[in-house]
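Question (not urgent): is this output format expected?
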Amino acid sequence: MAYATFGAGCFWGVEYFFKQVDGVTDCTSGYMGGDDQYSSYTEVKGGMTGHAEVVQVEFDSSKVSYETLLDIFWSNHNPTTHNRQGEDTGSQYRSCVFFHDVSQQTQAISAKLALIESSKWGDKQIVTEIVPTQQFHEAETYHQDYLAKNNLPSCHISF
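Got this back:
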């Protein structure tokens, strides 16, 4: 199995989209990119820890490629809004790709450049961070599969 980690706003919606993908074996909501101390949801949501809400995706690379996961990432959030997705504001909701190896880094940078060149977002700047993975902190149990547990629709809009 391989791993990919993405931040694209509220992790509930990010988790929802990746769970629909054949070849994705698990998705875990959590926090990455801040100080290395464990932080609670309340602390991260307060914007004081430097963490982003992320989803760590476990996938079978013989069934789904990292490139496909990147396509899903880019298609399900607005990569032009700095520290914001919809109504959620703050650095914890930033657009970010945490790469696990050099191949993922190269693919993420190439995908970002292709998105810029496509002019899909016009003259808006793509602000997505592409950075190495850091310590992953799993979110509290009630955040895992939150939308499914609460019979809620996705909270993201496809772009």
